[in-house]
Design brief:
The protein has 433 residues and is an alpha/beta fold. It has 15 helices and 17 strands.
């Protein structure tokens, strides 16, 4: 796309935004006594456009069959749909089709990697898998900004192998502290970090972290759950070795996610789950395994969900990730400005709109986040409350929990004004101020 075309596609027009909203049937409903729904919980799960819902229904109505194992017409059509979905998702994230492994979600993708590394550490996979072996003296580096899915599996891998877990720090403003990059050393074997925080919305300095990992020969794992739905992402250009993301956060169905791996690494990685069609030759005493990505897709797969995710990927691509990112950048600036005018509200993370996305966690002085969420819900505004599966980050920022608002492709500035109006009444309601 040329610079001129990128400029033309810089933002969604009002007409385009209205058309987008019409694509999401759920947005038309009312809640809490007839109030219009204002859905600002996209970081937890996104709403689904009608094309995604239709694609899943059409699969069950017309093509339902197992994949990679039948010789009849339906099986061929289902297999074709399954692999076409893989190609569509690969295009969206700048990967090769054979570099995308289907998983149930991003959490399963990270666990798959961690257990495959564990298997390699036990000697499975032979010589090609030696590069994944871990033991005492080796280190895995994460960050304080991780949600639990990109922390706990690595803790468990360390417990199984004797490796040590270390981490990069976070600044008071909620960004990864590059002053702590020296945590990555010649002992580091894996660096796993989030592309965008699901609490602060801050975009991580991928280039700097990857360069530090490369300088010591460490593998790089990127948690792209909050970036793929909101930003243009090119995994090859980012030069990461592995990445994970979830379908349900990017307008697709639940129960489907993806693990990206550089093809030469996937080819060397031993499997985690076994059985079904992920094999090459099976005897009563031993088994050889299929080439990736089938090697990592044991058992009956989530075919309808892949078809739905294909529709979601096409929907995002048609809108244009540049235009979508520009739209959400405007929303983020509007949201931060609105919150800044409300007394007693503290934003966790960057308060400027640059280099972040529209995920904003906050606290209200003297009011528990659950109470904040309840008052907002009474106004028809859906947000998330709690620790957002990121207890260490909340602890670092000095609070046990927070409320979180997160925008999506269908969000309007009018909805953000409704949110801010309700938020401005929280302290009066609970504290009588």
């Amino acid at each position: 796309m040329s610079a001129e075309q990128r400029e033309v596609r810089a933002r969604l027009t009002a007409t385009e935004l209205a058309a987008v909203r019409a694509d999401f049937p759920l947005l038309a409903r009312t809640v809490r006594g007839g109030r219009p729904l204002v859905y600002l919980d996209t970081a937890a799960t996104s709403q689904k456009p009608e094309c995604v819902i239709d694609a899943e229904q059409d699969f069950y109505l017309q093509r339902n069959a197992g994949v990679h194992r039948g010789a009849h017409a339906l099986a061929e059509e289902a297999t074709e749909a399954y692999e076409q979905a893989r190609a569509a998702v690969a295009r969206l994230v700048g990967a090769g089709t054979d570099e995308i492994v289907w998983t149930k979600n991003a959490t399963e993708g990270i666990n798959l990697l961690a257990y495959a590394f564990s298997n390699a550490s036990l000697g499975r996979g032979g010589a090609p898998a030696q590069r994944f072996r871990l033991g005492p003296g080796d280190e895995i580096v994460v960050t304080e900004a991780e949600h639990h899915a990109n922390l706990v599996p690595w803790q468990e891998l360390c417990a199984r192998t004797g490796a040590t877990l270390r981490w990069l720090g976070v600044t008071d403003s909620g960004r990864i502290d590059l002053e702590t990059l020296d945590v990555i050393t010649e002992r580091t074997r894996v660096v796993a970090f989030t592309h965008v925080s699901n609490v602060t919305g801050a975009i991580s300095p991928v280039k700097e972290i990857v360069a530090a990992a490369r300088s010591h020969g460490a593998l790089v794992v990127l948690d792209a759950c909050q970036s793929v739905p909101h930003l243009p992402v090119d995994l090859h250009a980012l030069d990461v070795d592995f990445a994970v993301f979830s379908g349900h956060k990017m307008l697709g169905p639940t129960g489907i996610g993806a693990l990206y791996g550089r093809r030469e690494l996937l080819a060397a990685l031993p499997p985690f789950g076994t059985g079904g069609s992920m094999v090459e030759v099976v005897s009563m005493s031993e088994t050889t395994f299929a080439a990736p990505p089938q090697r990592f897709e044991a058992g009956t797969q989530m075919v309808a969900q892949t078809v739905g995710l294909h529709a979601a990927a096409d929907y995002l691509a048609e809108l244009g990730m540049d235009a979508l990112a520009a739209h959400e950048e405007e929303l983020t600036a509007h949201l931060l400005a609105g919150i800044s005018r409300i007394e007693g509200v503290r934003v966790l993370g960057p308060t400027e709109p640059e280099n972040r996305i529209g995920v904003v966690a906050f606290t209200v002085d003297g009011v528990h986040p659950h109470d904040v969420g309840q008052l907002l819900d009474d106004a028809g505004v859906a947000v998330r409350v709690g620790h957002h599966c990121a207890q260490p980050l909340h602890r670092r920022l000095g609070v046990p929990s927070s409320a979180r608002v997160s925008v999506g492709v269908h969000t309007t500035t009018a909805e953000l004004d409704t949110f801010c109006d309700a938020l401005s009444r929280v302290r009066d309601f609970f504290l009588g101020r």
